[in-house]
Amino acid sequence: MKTLTEIKKARCFNRFVFLVAALGLITTFTACSNDDDSDIPVYSLKDVDGSYSGTMLTASDPSVNPQTNSPKEEQPEGATVTAEVKDNQVMIKKLPVDDLIKSIVDEGTAEIIIENLGDINYNIPFTAAFSDDSKGSILLQLKPEPLEIKYTLPSQVQIDGEEAPQITVKVTIEAEEKGQYTYKDKKLTFVIKATKVEVEGQPLKTFPITTFSFDMVKK
């Protein structure tokens, strides 16, 4: 009987040890699983939202993208720009429009207008989608609307005795390619083109198609 009792005790002890070991393994696997889950990034199309700063490069040749078609050492510095991305819009603050004004009037008059022109803000609506490269970037289908610039003719170029008129310039903006936000460097890049200009409803026949290339980084 003593031997049988000892055997039963040994079996119970072995079962206890097995149960403790099994529970330990389950706990280990659960902990590892939680650790793995915490390492998996959670992506959202809202990740593109935020404040940006960078440059805008301008080219009057529509076939040229000044960001990519020129060697780095030959690229111009570009104009400094800032933007806010939210509510499916790229909101560009103080859009540089000097080149547009200079294409409409002579250089002397343009300089006077630019000096007296207020800040031009421009919003570009878009729809976002993940790229096919394992969610490494977000693509923006830009839907630019016409840009309107209103200015009052400075006194230096007014005709004597006439009231200063307000001039409305309407610029047709297009986007042939999608913009892109990359997670790795938090960079937002896109290109838009000014394809047509109307001054007080009259098309400007001499206006050259102008490309604006934006390269900005999230702050």
Give your account of this protein's structure.
It is built from 3 helices and 11 strands. With 219 residues, it is an alpha+beta fold. It has 2 domains: 1-40; 45-218. The chain has an 8-stranded antiparallel barrel with strand order 1-2-3-4-5-8-9-11. The longest helix has 38 residues, at 2-39. The mean pLDDT is 80.
How are the strands of the biggest sheet laid out side by side? 1-2-3-4-5-8-9-11
> How many separate structural domains?
2
Number of helices in the DSSP assignment: 3
Rg over CA atoms: 31 Å
The fraction of residues in strands falls at 35-45%
How does the SSE layout of this entry go?
Layout lengths: L1 H38 L10 E10 L19 E8 L2 E5 L4 H7 L2 H10 L5 E9 L6 E6 L4 E6 L13 E9 L4 E4 L4 E13 L2 E2 L6 E9 L1
Antiparallel strand pairs: 1-2, 1-11, 2-3, 3-4, 4-5, 5-8, 6-7, 7-9, 8-9, 9-10, 9-11
Please supply descriptive tags for the structure shown above.
219 residues, 2 domains, single chain, 11 strands, alpha+beta, 8-stranded antiparallel barrel
Short description:
The protein is of the alpha+beta class and 219 residues long.
